[in-house]
Task: structure prediction
Amino acid sequence: MVATFGLLLLFGLILQAVAADDARRIRIATAHSALTLLVGEDGRVYELGYGSVNKNGFSHERTPAREQEFYPQAGDGFVLEPALQATHADGNVSTDLIYLRHKAQVVTTNISLTRIELKDPAYQFFVTLCLKAYASEDVIEQWTEIRNGENGAVTLDRFASSAPLLHAKEYWLTQFQGDYRREATLSEEKLTPGTKVLDSKIGTRATRYRIPSFILSLNGPAQEDSGEVFGGSLAWPGSFQMAFDVDWNNHLRALCGINPFGEEYHLKPGETFTTPAMLWTWSNEGKGQVSRNFHRWARSYGIRDGDTPRPVLLNNWEATEFNFNEKIIVSLFDGAKELGADLFLLDDGWFGNAHARTNDAAGLGDWQVNTNRLPHGLSYLAAQANQRGIRFGIWLEPEMVDPASDLYELHPEWAIGQPHRAPDLFRNQLGLDLSRPAVRDFVWQSIDDTLKPNPGITYLKWDANRYVTQPGSTYLPAGEQSHLLVDYNFALLNIMSQLAKNYPQVTAMLCSGGGGRVDYGALKYFHTFWPSDNTDPRDRVFIQWGFSHFFPAITMSDHVTKMGNRPLKFALDVAMSGTLGMDLDVSKLSADERATVAAGIALYKNELCDMTLRGNLYRLESPYDHPRAALDFVASDGSRAVLFVYQLQDAANKTVKLRGLDPQMRYRIDEVNLPAGEKSKLAANGQTIDGATLMRDGLVPPCQKEFESSVIELAGEK
Ligand code: GLA
Result:
């Protein structure tokens, strides 16, 4: 009955979404948000507002000012940052887009798709604005299709995916920047008049210095549980540009898409260019709700198998790096099993013969097993793992080539590079030119030739350890060199989608020299991503905190390692709040340490992962503002929750107030993951307290000293 009512309600919302308020209004609505557009009397499409579903927008004029155009074009009267800039076949640098028609279609009970068709009255040049609304997640996905019906090539100089206009007194922008080993570092600033650009120009695995996701808070810094906040995330693994332009009316335009820098695109007659999708979500309950919207959307639509817990894996990279052979690898399997791992992941170093991959200077591109190190091959290793009851996985870096490789000796022209420039090596390697069809075939073949003959491989870590510093292709003609990075990334996504389609049984991790490729374009074909090569749990608290703004815990591979020499319990407690794994030399652990890890894994698998991976996240205390970090996850029906507290500096223990609980529900409080034989020092341990009290008065976790941590389970007893 309740479910039927819910469905009817959703269906009603969709009908509301697809029905134009009047003939000239187009409204794209979700459960709580709406984007309202207006076809002006001049035929241009204007934006009336994006925000609460209860508001109709900030302008009621029949033909608003040009600054309010929804997808502004350069050249004919628009004087601000345009979403689209094109040079037509006759050299005209201006474009006018006039409304032709729009169509709203119900895709599912939760999803509607609105397509708004526009045309330049003077040219056979067509643009379709596509807006997909996910009602219950409050997400609007926007992309643009640009079709050249002219007689000659049209050059696209700028081609944003989305460029909505926001209206408030103040705009506060939070970005997530960083570098290798300090990914997704949060910083927030108030926007001032003019244009603030957040971008990446490094072409592939483009998120090394910044992810293409941001938070925009209206009228004050973003709060976790109050205030109007937008979240944006571009589904594209290549160079991106987010330009935030505050104009003289104090409107903010957020232009988001592929970075036009060095990527102008020539569209041949008859061709259509489809931009990547930009994801937007809105909430008037703070950035916590924005994150939960993204998380729910991702689990249902944005990643592979969003409802299925990931295997707990043991990776050999930090334990062995390149120093292993078959005997050593097999010897690690028993330890993996003893700890309770589900899978062993063999990292870098298993391939290359003439150019053996025994260090990071050789072998990339030669994806044949190294017969010296692993004489019985990969299927043998998989069988050995399977015999011990664990699955087997492998590392690949399929887009790359080392100059010291058979592949490079055969095809030096396949590497990305430029004439008259000495190759700019990075980690001794070059990137392969995916704009060339033969290279695409080779890359796919390398993956297929590794997986097909070895069905025992059921996990793939896809790495990419360099970006592009010399964009140039021996395949593309002189006039199309600027296509390289666009073509590369579309080809890359295509190969990734082939992997997902052909190998549904292979769990896949997206890695890129740490977290150099974290975006919803690539993640669609993966189960998890590797946030950082920095696994020091102290730093991981910050890195995981940053990524959690957009990506759910089920996507974050968080491993327990010895990095930083922190207490093992602290390392476990931090890794357990995401997708738990390990990168440890089990033989070097003491019996006590082994027991601690095994107990932690069992707890995670049997009790916690259901809440962390499928529940709703509430960030309670930010490590940026407090001597500790605290977060809780609540099962979607409110019946169970888990609280994590990580002490990062010495401080007197203070109350932490929980959020997201069912106020009526009574919860039994149990501190878990305690060292063997130790009793909890939590005063409320074992007590039963109602949700309203826990949210109002909180708990006092027993953490005071740096690197103390606490995991507290709350089990509802209605
Ligand atoms: C990258 C990854 C690591 C590891 C190494 C192997 O740095 O981020 O996890 O796989 O490559 O070379």
The pocket of alpha-D-galactopyranose is lined by residues 317, 347-348, 395, 463, 465, 511, 513-514, 530, 533 (CB under 6 Å). The longest strand covers residues 125-134. The chain has three domains: 25-302, 322-330+344-584+597-613, 617-717. The first helix runs from residue 2 to 18.
